[in-house]
Amino acid sequence: xxxxxxxxxxxxxxxxxxxxxxxxxxxxxxxxxxxxxxxxxxxxxxxxxxxxxxxxxxxxxxxxxxxxxxxxxxxxxxxxxxxxxxxxxxxxxxxxxxxxxxxxxxxxxxxxxxxxxxxxxxxxxxxxxxxxxxxxxxxxxxxxxxxxxxxxxxxxxxxxxxxxxxxxxxxxxxxxxxxxxxxxxxxxxxxxxxxxxxxxxxxxxxxxxxxxxxxxxxxxxxxxxxxxxxxxxxxxxxxxxxxxxxxxxxxxxxxxxxxxxxxxxxxxxxxxxxxxxxxxxxxxxxxxxxxxxxxxxxxxxxxxxxxxxxxxxxxxxxxxxxxxxxxxxxxxxxxxxxx
Length: 339
Hints:
Layout: H1 14-59, H2 61-68, H3 70-75, H4 82-91, H5 94-104, H6 112-124, H7 128-137, H8 142-167, H9 188-219, H10 221-236, H11 243-252, H12 254-267, H13 272-284, H14 290-297, H15 302-324
Helix pairs in contact: 1-7, 1-9, 1-12, 2-4, 4-5, 6-8, 6-14, 7-8, 7-12, 8-13, 11-12, 11-13, 12-13, 13-15
């Protein structure tokens, strides 16, 4: 007798499909919930500060700050007018600094060395109102993070100026590689529209990062990645738990790396000083891709904005870790965050 088989039916796979469907729905809801929570945290910081910065620009206070920075600019081998560029960058962002750079039309009077120095200062200290608030939300003392970003921005310029003058490297006239189309003096409507677009982008970038982090965690790649970097970053005092987020911050920016670190600190008990060290490194060397390319477009040399900045940031972080371990934690992190 021959065995008889039931005809093939999709019904056999229905339980499997239903399982994956339910799992995907659950994972999607969780992802959207976590994204909304992280994005909302960023919006609470970004929106009021963006409005305040717009008011400062309207009142012309940034120009006064730029004038106050003129002596520092001259001390590091730059024209005093560059103070307005750095002041605009610190209060707004890299794009704001670029607008000031092109508006002043001083690029033809600078050498490649001078533009490289100016750009490294811009990279070290920009968008401070927002980025410092993110660091504060993670538990770092705001004024300490400001001194690190501002102070080491100046120290970077001093060291770079001495190096380039002694070696006579990059002393040729500056050459702008690419000038992006930047809207100067946008109307209130254009500004509001630009802000809305920025917040939408932030939401979806945070969602993408959280999704990638979950996939990397489930696959075990994240743990392997962290273990691989642990010997290097551990020397600097960076905790294994925040290594992936620190790398994201260095690659994409403090806005995203900081948001992920804040989320991790809410879910895990991470020592406050380890979070502080992560923000020190991210503060001095972040957004290595986008921001560095923008600076190169202004005429800065790639060796300065990539290699010099990264080496300087690693050395500074190493020194900061060694010094701060001998000092009270509450000098650097908020008391409620100390462990």
